[in-house]
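LOG
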Amino acid sequence: MLRDNFQPDYGNSEQFFQNGNGVLTYFDPNRNLWLSVNRSTLTFGINHNMISGKRFMTMVAEISSNNSGYVSFRSGIITAISAHCKESVNTYFRIIKNNDLVNDYLNIYMDDQISNSTDNLTVNFSNSDVLQCLIDVDPGSYVSYPTVQLEIAWT
């Protein structure tokens, strides 16, 4: 049942409503949150091999995420992360929030894998937060043509 501008029953997962931003939402009982029905995907990647070291991955049109990152236009959560590459050894993909290089916001590790994913996340971010992806390859290790995708639900 779709209703506009009503007082939702927060315990009823079968109700949908349009929030103040015009976003159709539903109640997710597993996360105990109202989330957008539509999801967005953020994609980061590098179009070559990388041997050892750290580097921000690029976004659209080869813009490095350390120069900009994805700026959130509303609050939301990361619900899933996936990483894929041609081949990898000892590679960390670190999601950075607001240029904070000290505290890992979210990460995914790959060692002798071509893909890894997690789809049961509830990682919050706020309006105007900047999300970036830093690839960290251990000394003597490598990764080939990596990509990282984040699934976003709006709150």
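LOG (cont.) second protein
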Amino acid sequence: MSTPRRVRRATAGGGVTLAAVLVLLVAGGLATGDGGRDRRDAVALAAAVCGGGALSGRLLGRRAFRSPAAGVSLGLGAVALRILPALAALAWIQAAAPRLRAAGGGEMMVVFYLALLAADLFSTIIGGRRDARDSASN
């Protein structure tokens, strides 16, 4: 089953929104720290894990599906792709990476995750309104 053009456009728009928010988060994370190597590593880890999870979750969550059960499965998979890597990285930072923990790595993970989640929700809501408006005019 192919994905409709409007869904592909909304998915691409949401991906661009997530990438823009990720760039702002990285700039803010680097600006607020001491500029040391540990801080840069903490920001890079948070950006890679949370950014990758957000983008892959968005792509999986917007795929076309054939049945309601497949839609639920895709939605759960999207949530798992978004949250599980972030939780695993946060647990690793707390348990085995005192250098990153001292540099604010745990806080960076939480801030990046929540900001990207908010951006994804916002772009989904705006995209849904735009889709509904376009459907009503046709």
